[in-house]
Amino acid sequence: MKNLFRKTSKIFSLCVPIFFCFISFNIYSQSFSDVTSAKGIIELIDTGVDPIIAKIYGGGASVVDFDNDGDLDFFVGTNFGQTSQLYRNNGSGQFQEVASSLGISNTDRIRVGLWIDYNGDELLDLILVGDCFKVSSGCVEQLDIYLYRQTSGGQFVEETNAGLDFNGKYNTSLDTEKVVGGVSAADINNDGWLDVFVSVWGAESTLFLNNGNGTFSDISIISNLAQSTMFRWQSIFHDFDRDGDMDVYVNVDFDSNEFWLNNGDSTFQNIANTIGADHPFNEMGMTLGDYDNDGDFDIYATNISRIDDGETQPRHNILLRNDWSLNNTLSFVEISENSGINVGASGWDWGTTFFDSNNDGYVDLASTNGWPQINWSPDPSKLWLNIDGLLFSDISNTSNFNDNWEAASLVAFDMERDGDLDLLQSMKLNIGDKKAARLYENNYSSTTNSNNYLVVKPRLNGSNHFAIGAKISVTYNGVTNIRLITAGTSHFGQEPAEAFFGVGNNSFVDEIKIEWPDNTETIVNNISSNQVVTVMPSGVLKVNQNPVTTIKIYPNPVTSELSIKTNKNIEKFEIYNLIGQKVLENTFSKKINVSSLSDGIYFLKLLNSDAYINDTFNFIKK
């Protein structure tokens, strides 16, 4: 596809009207709704205790199925003096906060919560990393790390003797102020156990090697990753050069980014300047995705769109096109400002994600923005629609993903298993809002003739059960899409250990291929779309571990008549406006006349005879 892009870029201007028609069709079908309160997200941020912690950098959001019930839950960090939040999904996209009730009672400043199975019992454990940046009193360690082991009963117990400890190395008074930059995990030495990398803004990084016996060892120095003080933000692991071991790319503020090539002996070397990956801007958030469907992962990193003193060209977000597919050589070309791409100048960006928002087989791109200075406000979030891997179109306004909140992480996941990817932002301190997270529901699956999808959950027996580092490919109708299973992405973020694919109008996927972290492969053929499948190395499939919803509403947006397609036993419906007032109710009908409603966003609740809410949907009346 990259050769095709180069051949067609010069003639693309002649085809602009045709593509605009195509874009308009997608814009109409693409819409997000803020459903934060409706989904059960409660207040968290305390504006009276060191609010600068939340105001400047915020905390992260990590999405996992921590209780292994088939739906996706999430964790958000918080301010010093308060307990972080863990939201359990009830199976239909409604959430309940359960952190303290399950034993997660830490009240330190938590930037990042990272979920891994550190001890090989096939249960997800939680690593918390926090700092004391500008806390006025009471905070002891400038950086601290905690490990919560999940028990077989679903409770969490803090482990204090696992070797996951900074041992005060970040407390020296000579160093600059320090902030957790990011946390990521991968098996760096192919022993089957996940190791943990902590990047730090204002100090050296730390690499913890998993010893395979429930303990970790700090190998930062011998691995070469404990370099001198830098302002490092998010890192991400992937075997970029396909030699069988995990490399790590690190965003760096005020200096050149670092690409650490794994030497195969638990040591690394920085080769960023030899492969076109050493951009010296202010990169913070990061995501990997194959935007052009050529079989390799491209890198997008967020930045600050500005001109620094002494510079003539503006800084901006970067899109590093991976050119491995051209000649099997590791090299990148920065193309964010190229004609037709235009995903560079965006504001003051933080979290970001590649995700297929309309299930057309091409990953789209979103970022969350904001900085607490007047000249940077308002600074809206951004969503760019990927057009056939050739260009991106800014649909932030028409899709309603254009909020002006100050935020940190941005991650994508299907919260209600309805077949489209929703968005989760972790929040900083915002005037008039104390929530630490905001949920944006993707309305795409409820549109007429929406595209199909497939979710693949790769799973291993024993250590690294959740297959962190695996590469998933699906092939349908001659097209191949790839996804990466990661632990650590975006900015202080984590996306679930599953691969979501939009597959267009294809009812079947010809092939699923999983390239496991141990460099073996599993191939499964002829799989139906619109389901969740679990794949083991044996190729055995567990289908529909959590069945997708059997209710669809359309059209959405709607003008006069809302249609309901379902095989559930529903006897009554209720419609509420955004402030919770009931505006319409009646006995259930598969055709609901909403012409009397004013234009706006509404919530439809479908109930049975016991007034039990089967499902809640939002729709736009226009």
Q: Would you mind describing this structure in some detail?
A:
The protein is mostly beta strands and 622 residues long. Helix content is 6%, strand content 38%. The protein contains six helices and 43 strands. The strands form ten sheets. Strands 10, 11, 12, 13, 14, 15, 16 and 17 form an eight-stranded antiparallel sheet that branches. A hairpin with an 8-residue loop joins strand 3 and strand 4. The chain is globular.
Please give a quick description of this structure.
The chain has 622 residues and is mainly β. It has 6 helices and 43 strands.
Keywords:
43 strands, disordered N terminus, 622 residues, mainly beta
How is this fold's topology laid out?
Blueprint: H1 2-8, H2 16-29, E1 32-34, H3 52-56, E2 61-64, E3 73-76, E4 85-89, E5 95-97, E6 110-116, E7 125-131, E8 143-150, E9 156-159, E10 179-186, E11 195-203, E12 206-210, E13 216-218, H4 220-223, E14 230-238, E15 247-253, E16 258-262, E17 268-270, H5 272-275, E18 286-289, E19 298-301, E20 318-322, H6 324-327, E21 332-334, E22 349-355, E23 364-369, E24 382-387, E25 391-394, E26 407-413, E27 422-427, E28 437-442, E29 453-458, E30 471-476, E31 479-484, E32 499-502, E33 508-515, E34 521-528, E35 532-535, E36 541-543, E37 551-554, E38 561-566, E39 572-576, E40 582-587, E41 591-593, E42 600-607, E43 613-621
Parallel strand pairs: 29-35
Antiparallel strand pairs: 1-28, 2-3, 3-4, 4-5, 6-7, 7-8, 8-9, 10-11, 11-12, 11-14, 12-13, 14-15, 15-16, 16-17, 18-19, 19-20, 20-21, 22-23, 23-24, 24-25, 26-27, 27-28, 29-32, 30-31, 30-33, 33-34, 35-36, 37-38, 38-41, 39-40, 39-42, 42-43
